[in-house]
Amino acid sequence: MAVWIQAQQLQGDALHQMQSLYGQHFPIEVRHYLSQWIEGQPWDGIDLENPQEEIKAKRLLDSLIQELQKKAEHQVGEDGFLLKIKLGHYASQLKSTYDRCPLELVRCIKHILYTEQRLVREATNSSSPVGSLMDSMSQKYHQINQAFEELRILTQDTENDLRKLQHNQEYFIIQYQESLRIQAQLSSLATLPPADRQLREPSLLSKRATVEAWLTREANTLQKYRLGLAEKHQKTLALLRKQQTVILDDELIQWKRRQQLAGNGGPPEGGLDILQSWCEKLAETIWQNRQQIRRAEHLRQQLPIPGPIEELLTELNSTITDIISALVTSTFIIEKQPPQVLKTQTKFAATVRLLVGGKLNVHMNPPQVKATIISEQQAKALLKNENTRNDSSGEILNNNCVMEYHQTTGTLSAHFRNMSLKRIRRSDRRGAESVTEEKFTILFESQFSVGGNELVFQVKTLSLPVVVIVHGSQDNNATATVLWDNAFAEPGRVPFIVPDKVLWPQLCEALNMKYKAEVQSNRGLSEENLVFLAQKAFSSSSVNPEDYRNMTMTWSQFNRESLPGRNFTFWQWFDGVMELTKKHLKPHWNDGAILGFVNKQQAQDMLMSKPNGTFLLRFSDSEIGGITIAWVAENPNKAGERMVWNLMPYTTKDFSIRSLADRISDLNHLLFLYPDRPKDEVFSKYYTPPLCKFATPNPDPAANPTYMDHAASPAVNQPHAYGLYPPIGDPMLDADGDFDLDDTMDVARHVEELLRRPMEGQWSGQQS
């Protein structure tokens, strides 16, 4: 139980990684309640590539279910009753999931245990997360390189043994020919006179006996050599398979996971150079051993000696072919994914790469790759090896591409530069599912041979899930589907199943990653921001982050059901904030000038303790992609009383006319950015320089009053001069006391009018 006890002590990112190992495919409760039993089973003793091992896997599955049922039966009391039902449900669920494919359960548990051990080891090695990661990577690379060195030595050893075997066999054949020559001489003695025959026969018989005795001994020696060589090859292939599992099932899968998270704005997945070098070393070592096994088979055929070697060599040849097949098919990967929100009739690109293409000389006869769009159901059928017979769910233009070999980098890849989805055929949707929740995938497939047509491979790989849209208005909801899938997809899942609900901290991590990437900022979402989002998501008033740690959010809450009292979902609101910030507010967000994630009541509480003219910027609760200014000032209707004012929200439409900084500059009554920074100190570097050089048609300011003449603040002694702050009952104020600047004196219209008049005057002067 040691690993599980230590795994429960993990913190931060390591804890999140550990939690992400579990889901519907293997619930974390099963790991917890059967931890001792799970860690005591011989999972490593099962060869996942050998179908005959399925019997062992089935026994382990049955034992796991029995243990779960026993655990469920022993639960008593009120709490025990619920746990009993839950564990019984998990037993049925695991049986249903893995009964037909028990090896997948073994694969799943091996991956969980391996990852837990790695995470625990990393956490133990260093108290610093960065140091731990670097130490872990360094240690991992060292182990991989050490294994390659061991493989090199083993392969060289078997090469030497093979040469020695060949030399001994050649000498054996020479001696065998000598025995045949002696036998021929003995046979020819029959034609000689008896005296000559008696003279020569004893010597020849002695020679024959000596040679035959030597041949018998040497035949046994050769058989031992052959068996010894075969056993060494078995050891080499076992290490090869283990090394290949580390590289393909751990390193390559992790790269693909990083690629998936990069689709949500995570850090780049990194280059493939190290992975390719490892895969090429594997390919080279596999091919050398394959050639050795074939040469050993040739020697056996050249000199058949009865014994088990024929069966052993057949088994070795089958194993090495399986290993190289797994390597080739697994290293046909998508280096650059197609866009996951894919609009019809729009050009898109993708790149596929064969990591072992150069080493296996596949480029000598460059293969062609074909791209097809298929549905989720078709992807499931494909992975089950069901006959789909070129089924597709749409038509892609320019969907064929020849793989090119790049000599300088040693890469073999196909660059699809001008694909376009001409049409899409949708399937029948389930329940409340919308078109923007329907997932497709791009299937890339090819065929090529290696070793002079000795082996022919048909390779296929699926892109990350793709949501197809026909109009830009669908982009928002399609992005939600992609975000959820990229963040919460579990390793080895059936396409493209994702959990229906996730822990709030997991969702926070995904939202923060997306936000930082979209806004292109190192300033992510703070704990206070995430509490605000939790309050919005769960209609809660709690400000304690711990209250949300164990709460879960469903997909429906995320982007199906509207927020209470609104006509938009949680995601649609959040996406609107990202879009507004990305397009118009990025520098102000990076400067820390925008608090943003603050509700109206919080803003009021914060501002009422500050001097008049203090303001803050917060994202609108009532409008998608809106930001409002809240400030504290005197109440014009009650002397000596102060109140907080809220402008009607500005949106992208407003900022495309006049920037936030200029709008803040225009409002004289805004003096200090919360808590106490003079507004010009924060925003002046973003002000648009005044265009004073144009002649004004009418220089009389009274004839052409500017907006600033009207922008008196309630904080100064002329609150009623122009009726900017009318009584609360005024129809220009909303129900919450907000007012719409557009309905009073829109900054943009006045500024545009002022800027337009001199130009019009100049043009008319030139024309007249």
From TrEMBL:
Gene3D superfamilies, alphabetized: EF-hand (1.10.238.10), SH2 domain (3.30.505.10), STAT transcription factor, all-alpha domain (1.20.1050.20), STAT transcription factor, DNA-binding domain (2.60.40.630), STAT transcription factor, N-terminal domain (1.10.532.10)
The entry's keywords: Activator, Cytoplasm, DNA-binding, Nucleus, Phosphoprotein, SH2 domain, Transcription, Transcription regulation
Keyword presence, Transcription: yes
GO MF annotations in UniProt: DNA binding; DNA-binding transcription factor activity
Pfam family, one: STAT_bind
Compartments, record wording: Cytoplasm; Nucleus
Alphabetical GO biological process terms: anatomical structure morphogenesis; cell surface receptor signaling pathway; epithelium development
GO cellular component, one term: nucleus
Domain of life: Eukaryota
Protein family: Belongs to the transcription factor STAT family.
Protein name: Signal transducer and activator of transcription
Species of origin: Cyprinus carpio carpio
Species classification: Eukaryota, Metazoa, Chordata, Craniata, Vertebrata
